[in-house]
Amino acid sequence: MISLNGYFNDTLLPVSEIRLPVNDLLIFRGLGVFDYMRTYNRKVFLFEEHITRLFASADRMGLHHHWLFSQISQKIQNLADQSPLPESAFRVILTGGMGSHSLEPGPANLIILTEEVHPYPAIAYDKGINAKLCHYDRYRPDAKSITYSQAVLELAEAKKDGFSEVLYHNGNEISEGTTCNFFGIKDGTLITAEDGILKGTRRNFILSFAEKYCKVEMRSVQLDELSHLDEAFVTSTTREILPVTGIDHISIGNGKPGDLTQKLHSAYRSFLTV
């Protein structure tokens, strides 16, 4: 078994030896935030965007910490340099800590874990995936909080029913997926939610170049639009741009990954070889 290292605050340890105090509010109350990033060619992609979002999430959730961008950057770079993996992923967590009682945050603990990258299989990109709809409004969706119990439970149920992903909606429109952003394509226009979501680093990056290939509308896809979509896909650090060819047994377009989805993914991949 490959031994991977991580950090607990300023202490470098094997990941298997990292321990969190049992009274930390991450354990007591599920209070904490995290971010997840991966390397290409052993360099973390969109590193600054990930750490900026981590700090913004901590502010949004009222966490107290003293960590500087440069300190976390140095720790992750050290882990990347020494990683025995060809490519690595890093999970950076800021916990709720413990104040004077169990409903008061204290100084946050910092945990950084080195993990293996688990890419989606090629067949998922060749044929696309099916997604299940779920009525759910996340609490403070603009923060990447550690609370993902709904995603874990709903995704497990969806997989029993033969689906690969869950898409959240509020009864009228789709917001996002369990750990991904959602895009629809209709009449050559790319559509994605602007509000009430966690704005993924991949989502933002794709939007930075998408207008070279199509029109872009910053709005949510309506549920009654699903049968009229030509294409759809989800984005995340591990998924990159993953085609969605069916939603709740509704076929998207011709039921195959669309041309624009594939063009955007090819463009995305071209940035990784620079």
How does this model look, in words?
- With 274 residues, this protein is α+β, with helices and mostly antiparallel strands.
- It folds into two domains: 5-116, Aminotransferase class 4, branched-chain amino acid transferase, N-terminal domain (D-amino Acid Aminotransferase, Chain A, domain 1, 2-Layer Sandwich); 122-271, D-amino Acid Aminotransferase, Chain A, domain 2.
- It contains seven helices and 15 strands.
- Strands 7, 8, 9, 10, 11, 12, 13, 14 and 15 form a nine-stranded mixed β-sheet that branches. The chain has a six-stranded antiparallel β-sheet with strand order 2-1-6-5-3-4.
- Strand 7, helix 5 and strand 8 (165-169) form a beta-alpha-beta unit.
- It is globular.
Kindly list the characteristics that best describe this protein.
single chain; D-amino Acid Aminotransferase, Chain A, domain 1; 274 residues
For this structure, what is the CATH class of the largest domain? Alpha Beta
**DSSP, total strands:** 15
Query: How far apart are the termini?
Result: 32 Å
Helix content estimate: 25-40%
Helix count, DSSP H or I runs of 4 or more residues: 7
Low-confidence stretches: none
Strand content bin? 25-35%
H/E element order: EEHEEHHEEHEHEEEEHEEEEH
CATH superfamily of the largest domain: D-amino Acid Aminotransferase, subunit A, domain 2
Structural class, by secondary structure, is alpha+beta
Give the oligomer, counting copies of the same chain as homo and different chains as hetero. Answer: single chain
For the report, how would you describe the main beta sheet?
Answer: 9 strands, mixed
Mean pLDDT: 96
What is the CA-based Rg, rounded? 19 Å
Task: Indicate the overall shape.
Answer: globular
Our count of domains comes out at 2
CATH architecture of the largest domain: Alpha-Beta Barrel
CATH topology of the largest domain: D-amino Acid Aminotransferase, Chain A, domain 2
